[in-house]
Design brief:
This is histidine kinase. The chain is of the alpha+beta class. The protein has helices at 2-96, 101-128, 133-136, 138-152, 169-190, 219-224, 228-239, and strands at residues 156-161, 194-202, 205-212, 243-248, 254-261.
Length: 262
C-alpha cells in the first residue's frame, strides 16, 4: 500500500509539473501576442494622428483601449483562473504528501512561483485596464497609480484635490493615461525623490499640475527630438481640446500643467 501511495503521489507530481510547464508556455505565447498587438495598435495610433486628425485619432484610441480591455479580461479570467486552480492542486498535493519532505519542498517552491506569476498577471492587467475608472472615477484610479509607484520605489508622492469634478469616460481615460505617462517618466528617468500632483477645477477647466524634483531636462532640445513621452502627453491633451505646458530646466525638476474644458 505504501508503494502504491508513493507511486500515486509521484504521478500527481509529474502530472502537475507537466501542467505547469504547459501553462507557462501558454502564458509566454499569450503575452508575446499581446505585445505584438499593442505595438500594432500604437503604430496605427500614430499614423492616424498624422493623417486624419482628431476624429480618426479618437476612434483609433478607442479601438486600442478596447483591445487593452479585452486582453486584460483574458489575462484575469483565463490565465489568472488557471494559475489559481494550479495553486489549489499543489496545496492538495502538499496535503497528501505531508510526510514526504521532498514533495513538500517541491510544492512550496512552485506555490511561491505561481503566487509571483499571479501578481505579475495582475500588474499587467491593471496596466492595460485602469482599475476602477468607470466604477469609481478618475481620482480613484490616479490614487491607484500613485500606490503602485509607492510600492516599488522610494519616491514620496503627494496627491492634492482642491476641487473635485466629474469628467466623461473619454476625458477621464485620456487624463489617466497622461498621469500614467508622467509617473513612468519620473520613475524611470528623473531620479526624483518627490512628486506632487494637484487636481483642481477653475473657470470651467479641469487642471492637472504635476511636479517632480528630479534632474529635469532641456525642453527645447527634447522637443526638437520629438521625445515620445512629451509628444504623447501633448497630443492626448489636444485631442480633448486641452493644452499641455512644460516648465523644466536641467537640475531644476519638472512642472507640467494640463488644462481641459470640463
Amino acid at each position: 500500500m505504501a508503494d502504491t501511495s508513493s507511486i500515486d503521489l509521484y504521478f500527481l507530481l509529474f502530472g502537475g509539473t507537466i501542467t505547469f510547464l504547459l501553462l507557462a508556455v501558454g502564458l509566454f505565447t499569450f503575452l508575446l501576442q499581446y505585445q505584438k498587438r499593442i505595438i500594432k495598435q500604437d503604430l496605427a495610433f500614430k499614423d492616424a494622428e498624422v493623417k486624419h486628425g482628431q476624429e480618426l485619432y479618437l476612434g483609433t484610441l478607442e479601438a486600442t483601449e478596447k483591445e487593452r480591455e479585452r486582453l486584460a479580461r483574458d489575462l484575469h479570467d483565463v490565465i489568472g483562473a488557471s494559475l489559481s486552480t494550479m495553486r489549489l492542486q499543489l496545496s492538495d498535493l502538499e496535503h497528501k504528501a505531508s510526510q514526504d519532505p521532498d514533495l513538500k519542498n517541491f510544492s512550496d517552491r512552485n506555490k511561491e512561483l505561481i503566487d509571483q506569476t499571479i501578481l505579475e498577471v495582475r500588474r499587467i492587467s491593471n496596466d492595460l485596464l485602469p482599475p476602477g475608472l468607470e466604477e469609481f472615477g478618475l481620482l480613484y484610479s490616479i490614487e491607484g497609480l500613485c500606490e503602485q509607484v509607492l510600492d516599488f520605489s522610494d519616491i514620496d508622492i503627494s496627491l492634492e484635490v482642491e476641487e473635485a469634478t466629474t469628467l466623461n469616460k473619454q476625458k477621464s481615460l485620456i487624463m489617466y493615461r497622461i498621469v500614467q505617462e508622467l509617473l513612468n517618466n519620473s520613475v524611470k528617468h528623473s531620479e526624483a525623490s518627490k512628486i506632487n500632483i494637484i487636481l483642481s477645477n477653475k473657470d470651467g477647466q479641469f487642471i492637472l499640475i504635476f511636479k517632480d524634483d528630479g534632474k529635469g531636462f532641456d525642453y527645447s532640445e527634447a522637443y526638437k527630438k520629438r521625445s515620445l513621452g512629451l509628444k504623447n502627453i501633448e497630443v492626448r491633451a489636444k485631442m480633448i481640446e486641452g493644452s499641455a505646458e512644460f516648465v523644466t530646466k536641467k537640475d531644476e525638476g519638472l512642472k507640467v500643467e494640463i488644462r481641459i474644458p470640463v
